[in-house]
Amino acid sequence: MTAIRPGDARDLPFLEAMLYEAFFWDPASPRPAFAEFRESVEFRKLLAGWGRPGDRALVAEADGAPAGAAWFRLWTPELHSYGFVDARTPELAIAVAAGRRGQGIGRALLDALVETARAGGFPALSLSVSPENPARGLYESAGFRRVGESGTSWTLALALEPAAVPRG
Fold first, then answer.
1. For residues 77-94, b (16+ Cβ closer than 10 Å) or e, as one string?
2. Count of structural domains within the chain
3. Which of 42, 73, 82, 115 could covalently link to 150 via disulfide, CB atoms 3.0 to 4.6 Å apart?
4. Position 154 in a domain
5. Pair 129, 149: CB distance under 8 Å
6. Mean per-residue pLDDT for 134-146?
């Protein structure tokens, strides 16, 4: 059984491992050693100062062990990542551990992160994805639409509306 819980600063090493997986999603592409990639400027920037306003993370656990993670951060026009849209729209990242893919964990994390953003009053979410990445289908099925390009990646965004308030 998979459970999803809020992530915190103690999960940062797992978020780093999942960020590595997200970067190197294509098994046909060569991967640098994790320790080497961890020192790159782009990698360090993406999780630097974790816990600042706008940072949210979720961790999926299966059989008592972390199985995947999803998170988002706010960026500025001066400091941002590839999926940047604007300073009010958090950019998300998501990855599932190699041995846990294809079990619905990514969908569960994405759905929960969308609800987290909606509950937080964010107007939208954005992300960056290679058009060849199979995860693109997951994002598009959740309503994300292409709004731009950055290098060889597409920027996708999902407009969020407040959750409907039940009337009764």
1. eeebbbbbbeeebbbbbb
2. 1
3. 82
4. yes
5. no
6. 95
Q: pTM score, two decimals?
A: 0.90
Q: Which residues contact 101 (CB under 8 A, 6 or more apart)?
A: none
3-state secondary structure of 48: coil
At residue 5, the 3 state secondary structure works out as strand
Q: Is residue 167 part of a domain?
A: no
What pLDDT band is residue 168 in, cutting at 50, 70 and 90? very low
135 vs 45, 69, 110, CA distance in Å?
A: 23, 14, 11
- Terminal-residue alpha carbon distance, the chain: 34
> Where in the sequence is the domain holding 88, given as residue range(s)?
2-159
Q: Which residue, chain included where needed, has tokens 């360090």? A: 44
Rounded to 5°, the CA angle 75-78-81 comes to 50
| Predicted pLDDT at 91 | 96
Q: Are 18 and 68 in contact (CB under 8 A)?
A: yes
Output the domain CATH number for residue 144: 3.40.630.30
